[in-house]
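Design job #97: recover the sequence.
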């Protein structure tokens, strides 16, 4: 999700500004349908893998808590902030597009921190004796 988050914020959302008004509704409908399907699978994988890593008994509770909080933040942000902004963009609202671009950064940062932290934790589990 980290790579998707940065791509979306740096390339995909800014490209919304390049779609003509006459093609916007068709584009937005297609974009919403296919992006939703495409992103849902890695997002569900992120949630599942977060819980799998958090179940490792050798990890200290604070590490597990940080991992779960980052996941809840990124998924919650998606459903509470990004999703509703997509609904406001049905009429190619420039303000909503700008807000969507700006509000994507905290989500991308959370996904990045989660990916890095998860990698560190998995490495720690593999290097523990026994």
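Job complete. Output follows.
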């Amino acid at each position: 999700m980290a790579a998707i988050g940065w791509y979306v914020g740096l390339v995909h959302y800014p490209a919304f500004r390049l779609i003509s008004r006459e093609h916007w509704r068709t584009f937005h409908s297609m974009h919403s349908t296919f992006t939703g399907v495409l992103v849902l699978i890695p997002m569900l994988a992120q949630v599942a893998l977060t819980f799998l890593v958090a179940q490792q008994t050798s990890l200290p509770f604070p590490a597990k808590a940080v991992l779960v909080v980052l996941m809840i933040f990124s998924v919650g942000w998606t459903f509470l902030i990004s999703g509703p902004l997509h609904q406001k963009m049905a009429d190619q609202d420039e303000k909503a597009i700008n807000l969507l671009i700006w509000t994507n950064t905290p989500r991308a940062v959370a996904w990045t921190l989660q990916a890095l932290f998860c990698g560190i934790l998995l490495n720690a589990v593999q290097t523990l004796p026994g």
